Amino acid sequence: MDLYMDMDMDMDMDMDDLYTNMNMHMHMHMHVNVEASTKIGALMTAIQAAMKASQLMESLRKDQKTATIR
Fold first, then answer.
1. pTM for the whole structure
2. Is the dihedral of CA 36, 38, 1, 31 positive or negative?
3. Could you report the per-residue pLDDT of 14-37, keeping only the tens digit for each?
4. E strands within the chain?
5. Which residues are paired to 22 by β-bridges?
6. pLDDT of residue 24
7. Which domain holds residue 7?
8. What percent of the chain has pLDDT over 90?
9. Nearest Cα to 3, choosing from 38, 36, 42, 40?
């Protein structure tokens, strides 16, 4: 089973005001190459990984709203 994830994060900082506006773009490329017998398991793994990544993005989004320049 060959399962690998390629994550690419790109951060944009905008210093217009006292608060830092961060625009985060996450590009997730998932490559899953498996045999027929393990396809369902790999699919579940990929779905769980995607859900974890979206939870991570959600918490980063919440943090960035309260982030100030120190």
1. 0.35
2. positive
3. 555 444 444 444 444 555 555 555
4. 2-14, 21-33
5. 13
6. 44
7. 2-66
8. 0
9. 42
Contacts of residue 43, defined as CB under 8 A and 6 or more positions apart, other chains included, come to 32
CB-CB neighbours of 18 under 10 Å: 7
Tokens of 57: 């993005």
In angstroms, the CA 57 to CA 27 distance is: 11
34, two tokens: 């498996």
Q: Which amino acid is at 66?
A: T
The DSSP bridge pattern shows strands 21-33 and 2-14 to be: antiparallel
Number of domains into which the chain is organized: 1
3: three-class secondary structure by DSSP: strand
